[in-house]
Fold each of these.
Amino acid sequence: MFLLAAKLAFAMMGGEAQADRLTDHEKTVWNQYRSAIVTLYEQGHPSGVAALIDDSGYFVTHNSSVSSASITGKSSNGKELTFSVIDRDRATQLVLLKTTGWVAGTARPFRIPTDNEADGGGLLAVLPTGPIRASYMSRHRFGLLKTSRRLVTLTEIRFEASPQLVGGALILCENGEFIGALNATLDRPETLDNQGQNSQGGQTLNNTTPIISGPGVQVGPQNQMRQFSNQGPAEMTVAYTVGPEVVQHTLQGFLSPSHEAEYASLGIFCTDAIGGGAQIQKVTPGSPAAKSKLQPGDILMNINYHEIPDQVAFATVMLQQAVGKKITLVIKRGRSTVWVDIVPAKATN
């Protein structure tokens, strides 16, 4: 499996000199997908790239690539395009763009990611100046979004580049799936001093969660940082994007009739419950949970026939729920078991 990543700030080596460092197979992969990638420009300078996700002219890019309501771009064949911003998703930092100048059939759109990607494999980091090599490591990590305090899965990637060069990169897969955008990089040891533990509702994340920093993302501590200084000719940087489940949800929203990414919310904050389940720590006034009379101390055991062993499972299952569609919760309240019907609202952040 090869992933293609489009860089948002560029330096390193120039243009085709980077492609010349690839293997023949990697060059074939790059040539296969370059027509579905557009370079974006702000004030006459490249600001990033966008990936085609619908042949009617819908593209996605990272939030750091576009600072206004519109932006210009240039396709691989040199055609100039004008894009309008349709929606910005805070969770993934993805932005939906639309251009009326796209000619259907010019390129094959990238697909929504699935959950069956195997760990490991080679990567290509595709910058406005050309592609570089990288590696896919793991997606079994968890992060906490700063604004919403939403717990999300993370995909872990390493690059032959410094952190300043890969932040905001788009991640695309050899099989045609759009994987996400790099939102954070692994902090160096000297940056870890005086950092407090991150928590959700008072529950500190476990020691296997990496410390990362980036736009809108922060996660808890890990025991040992990995070093990659001797694994290639260039410095190896560990970087993260939100997991495929979150990207999948966002792209489905982007391609829906409303072209908006929506997240279902009950208005509660949870921690892991002793003995299993997700224990409610806080209920937001006026939320669906408050209207359904959920209360702190209640333990979520099941959501729509999905077992909830901990707060991670709660966050994962809620990603599958639709705004405005009734779901059933199984709650442990003291010695009693309570079934509650509830209609999730749209998350506000």
Amino acid sequence: MRKIILMVIIFLLFFSFGCTPKTEETGVDYRTGTQGIVMNFMADMPPAKMYDSMPIDLVVEIKNKGAYPQPNPLTGWAINVISPNAKGIGTLYLSGFDTAFIMGMPQSMSIPSLEGKNIYNSEGGYDVVSFRGNIIDFDSRNIDSYNANFLVTSCYNYETIASQTVCIDPEPYSTKQKTRVCTIPPSYSLSGGQGAPVAVTKVEETVLSNKIQFKIYIKNLGDGEVIDKNRLNIDCPYSLDYTNLDKVYVSGRVSGYSLSCRPNNPIMLINGIGSVICTVPKPTMSRSAYTTPLQVNLEYGYSSSIQKSVEILNTP
């Protein structure tokens, strides 16, 4: 009898542990922060001082500190929304040094496919890219040293998804006494970024006679430059000017409607700041106020740079 009771207790303990729901970080807000693709030179690759008899390896660490792209729920691979002229998520370009002294180093490398932050990976993707070359014999050029400057510039596609709960009130100015679940505030403030270098910072809502208007404020919160996504692989990084810089493409949805926005895409940022006015029809099926998410999508190219100096000496 004691054995039977013991077996029942063990079974109940096993059942209780086995059936406890797994805690998934579904409540984690990974769409925060103001970074996208972040680069760093790996320590001592190459060292700050080296000799011409050594091969040179310039190793760049690449981290995706933003929330784009998200993994495919079926395959687990990162999904990139690619514009017609894009080549993957982007490219690294190497410049700043004299190719007569350092030869064989590739001038560009593709950025590895790195997933953004998500509920399963709070840090985002990580990889390294290596630029390898050879240094000429300094004796053949009668030089004692050369200070090489290496400039690595990233040009990549990125996307921001901003979500804000808004109040939809078809009759906000009605004088009839009624209870409302929400009221439209003067503005909705979005702080902390949305896991991308370009962010929606504020939304202002206005109810008109036959439509609802949202004025959406956009700002470049990163340390790089915003580029027209359709010119990214044509002009970045060596042909950037006012015709292809500070261009953002805006779309979104609210309450089942796609946003209709003016001015037309792309939206121009001035000193890193811009705004767009988007509208949806006023709901006809409801006369009472309700809350619903407003989702705004921003698509753009982005570019940033890092630099390193290496002193190369003639081998004694």
Amino acid sequence: MNNLTLEQLATQLESGDKRDRMLALASLRDVPAVEAVPLIKKVLDDENLQIRSMAVFALGVKPTEECYPILVKLLETDPDYGIRADAAGALGYLEDKRALEALVRAFYEDTDWLVRFSAAVALGNLKDPRAYDVLIRALESKEVVVQQAAIAALGEIKAIQAVDHILAFAQSSDWIVRQRLAEALGHLPTPKSISALKYMAKDSHRHVAEAARISLKRLSQSN
């Protein structure tokens, strides 16, 4: 991409029309990270919340050395819970293990469930076994979506020792919880996992049954 086009995008990001700014931000998906991030930063404090959210997400998929500290600061200090949740998610996309501490702190200390949910998902994306304790704690959440995220994340970090904990959700009335469980067990090769998956392959909800069959196939191929 030539400099003129980058200059045009920079100008568009300063437009008084939010649609212009949004379109320019979307156009940055095709721009290399090192050139895109300085432009993304132009709208991190935009008056429009949707544009701010898009910009935060963009930092997670356009990684440069600047992105990590910006996202941690947003996660820890932004007054808007949606932006804090976006920052947590973006840190997961970066897959930078330095984010573990900030994400764990956000899970324990943030008062909004959406931020805790995003932190749990991001901890799974980091694939760092050190997230085990906080994810086990997340299973006790009152919010079902946080439980879903924790089950999935424990699978992502391949926490074999979590099998007994997550099998407690095999009879959950929420089919998405059961689906996440079936998916997670596919990463946790134990006899109990296989037994549970054979049972879940007959689940009344087709998405759960299909997830269980896929996980059984994955486990059989990994042997």
Amino acid sequence: MKSSENIFTPHEKPRISPFLLVALIVILFTLTFGAACSNAWITEHGAGRGGYVLPPNLIKDGISFAGSKVPVERPGVHERIVEQLNYLLMDRRASVTEWFNRFVAYGPILTSALKKNNVPVDLVYLSILLSELDPNHKTRSGGIGWWALGPSREGSTKNIVPWVSTTEWDDRRDPEISTYIAAQFFQTLRKREPKYDWLLIVSTFLDGSDKISPILKKSPGFSYWDIITPPSSDLLIPRLIALKIILQNRNFYCVNITQDKPLTFDDLGRIKLSKDLPLSLVAKWTGAVPRNIWRLNTGVDIMAGVLPKTEKRSPDGYPLRTPLGTGAKVKKLLENEGCIAK
């Protein structure tokens, strides 16, 4: 073979191995990601072990949660928060990104309901951890929905703030109603223990006053960060704060959110219906798909697929949300179809 002879046929071109192509993409991503997030990561003892750290400005300026200063300058507090920070960013990064996308969509509904009930908006992070912002979320203890409402250490939460739960509808799955229920429960605990700050209120919500009150009686004058609380409180409160830090410093930790705007809709309020209203019919009226109508009305059971007619358990009817700009049309059609109860 002559040295100048081309080993490829005229129509054949050199091909890159798919494995090599994937390797190159991974290397490029790693280099880009590593360069962007290098300030958020430290390596310990030169042994290749390391983890994420707090943003320098946060250590300098401090951070508060629900109106309480978090003493991150204290080594023990710093360590607990950083431990949860690394758990979320290393073990649950994909989940955290998904939670934040859901938060962009539903966060304004949740935080607005907290504000209306005079509860600090920072408590919305508790909803993220309790339910992953999944309206159909169920806990092992029987909690359901955005705030995992159900049996609690205080007895049934329902005994404090009643809710409606049927085969077609559950208040705990509706973002606004469930947040109202949770907020009323928080306020009940706060009235019962006026000296507690919100961190201790959350502790009581998680573990019950029968566990938290005796601890505080034995340690009067000490804050949450000074006492030993039951496992739920001891773990979740530093995780709440870590979650807030990540969300407020997404660029520092290279956490990318793809959901770019919140859900927009017309709120028709509670509608008194004379018969069940299929969400598929609302979708047909508005030119949407049933799935998107349900996303606006998550209190509806997905298996039933209907907004229930008015009955004794909910004499004022159930709330209805429709795609932005369609509310007046839907209300008129409901009247024309004889769906509105007299």
